[in-house]
Amino acid sequence: MTATSTPLETAPAYYKAWTGDAFEHAMTYLADHVVCETPIGRLEGAAAFRAFLEPFAQQLIGSSLVAAYGDEDAAMLMYGSTTPFVTDLMAAEHMTVRDGRITRIRLVFDQLPGVEARKAAGIE
Q: Where in the numbering of this chain does the SnoaL-like domain appear (predicted)?
């Protein structure tokens, strides 16, 4: 990550890090004051976002990038992930990038497959 990185370089590098075995490195792509809007609510700050994402990343079996688009201010990624509970969880992230760091994430995913899988497994 550099201050001259474009959003379309930063966002996929961040995705590759958190979906691989480099979660700590993924966190370096986030601004300390990152704001993330998720289906479960708004998260403010890197620590809050870490608490949200790290448990998911730890259970991730695999993830596949479907598409990546960007301009001079932001990038959007769409990907499918596999966890022990859901085999094809689709998500999209719109990320605003300033000086090579992600300052805002708008994350969209359907919670229902995870809720149903956990309920079927007796986990609530």
A: 13-105
User: At 72, which amino acid appears?
Assistant: E
Confidence (pTM): 0.89
In the chain, what are the domains?
Answer: 7-120 (3.10.450.50)
Residue 29: CB atoms within 10 A of its CB come to 21
CB-based contacts of 107: which residues, under 8 Å, 6+ apart? 36, 37, 38, 39, 91, 92, 93
DSSP label of 122 = T
Q: Which residues pair with 67 in a beta bridge?
A: 78
* Contact call for residues 26 and 46 (beta carbons, < 8 A): no
How big is the CA angle at 61 (ends 103 and 86), to the nearest 5 degrees? 90
Q: Which among 109, 38, 103, 37 is positioned nearest to 75, based on CA atoms? A: 103
- Which among 94, 97, 39 is positioned nearest to 69, based on CA atoms? 94
How much is the pLDDT for 2? Answer: 54
